[in-house]
Design brief:
The chain is an alpha+beta fold. The protein contains four helices and twelve strands. It folds into two domains: about 120 residues, Trypsin-like serine proteases (Thrombin, subunit H), CATH 2.40.10; about 100 residues, Beta Barrel (Thrombin, subunit H). The protein has a six-stranded antiparallel β-barrel with strand order 1-2-3-6-5-4. The longest helix has 16 residues.
Length: about 250
Amino acid sequence: MIQQFIRLAAVATALAATQSTFAMVGGGGAPSPAVGNAVVTIVGSRGTSCTGTLIARDIILTAAHCIAPGTTYKIVDYKSRPPRLLDIRRTASHPQFNMQNLLAHRATADVALLQLASPLATQPETLGGALLPVTAGQRLTVIGMGVAVAGDGRSGGVARAASLAVTGRPGTLQIRLVDPATDNARAGLGACTGDSGAPAFLDSSGGPVIAGVVSWSTGPNNASGCGGLTGVTPLALYRDWILKTARGWGAGI
């Protein structure tokens, strides 16, 4: 396991050295430091990589499918040179998460928390209210640490943003996002490998708040891949569980 993390640290170093100005798969703008600094990379001892967001100094919000039993997780600190791996004290996935539903792109409780062994100085982000209104055509900003070029792992490892439009009939169970410039007909902006668990921000009167986390993506015309639809699990039904779990770990949230 130690050797696995050594390899992951080497990959993190390579990623930091090849940071791209592109945002998410397909290109785009970089996030503002106000929100981008709280978005992190989560690596697992089995070679997995996801995105998470600090919602307290020592609490990271991500997707439940990013957390597997019997796996050790760490956070990559890209602010250090070379990047270092930060220890995770414990993890928790929502008890109602169902992997089969997720694989079928059906709604499920795809949310999880990780607690850092030591708190960070980074300013955490704010969770949205339990009943945030989300309507078709509305814009959400997704910020992920995944790849900018599908299949090219070296293009990941830096926060990238995409302003995506809500499509279909959004509700409290699932939100589907699309690049309005391509409308799922051809490759555009969207979540890709390594963006699972990424925050989807909604602008509010008090500033951006986290409305959901990325659960899945498709290629154009709903094919496999990236650049088509981005599936987001909204936090409306799971906010109480998030707060209860984090506070049970002693977090001031």
